[in-house]
Amino acid sequence: MTRQATAAIAQVEDLQVAYDATDGSGLPVVFLHGLAEDRATWALQIATATSRPCFAYDLRGHGETSIGDANGTLQQLGRDLLAFLRLVSGPSTVVGFSLGGTIALWAAAHDDDGLILDVIAIGASSVVGRQAAEFYTQRIALAADPASPPFRDAVRHDTAAGLHVEHARLSEVTAARLAAIGDGQGYINAAIAMRALNETPLTPELARVQVPVHVVGGSDDAFCPMKASQIILESLSEADYIEVPSAGHLMNIDNPQGVAAVLTTTLRRDN
Length: 271
Fold this sequence. Notes:
Blueprint: E1 6-12, E2 15-22, E3 29-32, H1 43-48, E4 54-57, H2 74-89, E5 92-97, H3 99-109, E6 116-122, H4 130-142, H5 149-162, H6 170-181, H7 185-195, E7 213-218, H8 226-235, E8 239-244, H9 251-254, H10 256-270
Parallel strand pairs: 3-4, 3-5, 5-6, 6-7, 7-8
Antiparallel strand pairs: 1-2, 2-4
Helix pairs in contact: 2-3, 4-7, 5-6
């Protein structure tokens, strides 16, 4: 099973949102990428992992989506998702990686309209420690000039640290991530939002989530280790944990077939 996606643009609140869509049967699935990525990161999974209708959009200021009136908060990014569900896809399963998983969890905790049917949170965090907050602060400063060698070197370093297996693809993956970052404004906006989880964790709000959550971790994820998944799992009323083998944080690069296999099983079960 291989499907072709159609690219489109939608006006969603203050944004021009770029997204890919595929037809299918059953309930829709909406995919959210991570920091320094765009919707292309989900191409393999959308093409092969499910026959359900799929949507993957570029987050605010990433890829081809406009930055709009960005305020650097997880709340705004979560409301972007809820607006996309309301205006474009309809009620859906939401699959989010890293930043995207955190956004999906926030939105599920604040969804008063039944727009989120369930969540698959991959490599996500609900709180960040002091060291991670300092990391975001450093990257925010560098991203003010995304074409500068220090920032480009930092993205390459971060990409290498996120890989466990596919180091031979480092230059290719780094180039794709830099292209997704573009002028850096969306990267800065999202990094500010994630940094805030140090002082104001999402964790206490997870008790409000009323839908099933599948927490997915990489076997060798140094950015979001099992501890991060455990914090989320202990805060939810209905959740399970699935591990992708032979994968660092960038598990869609390290083991894309493993991620697709998890999605195939989970999306079939939840449809």
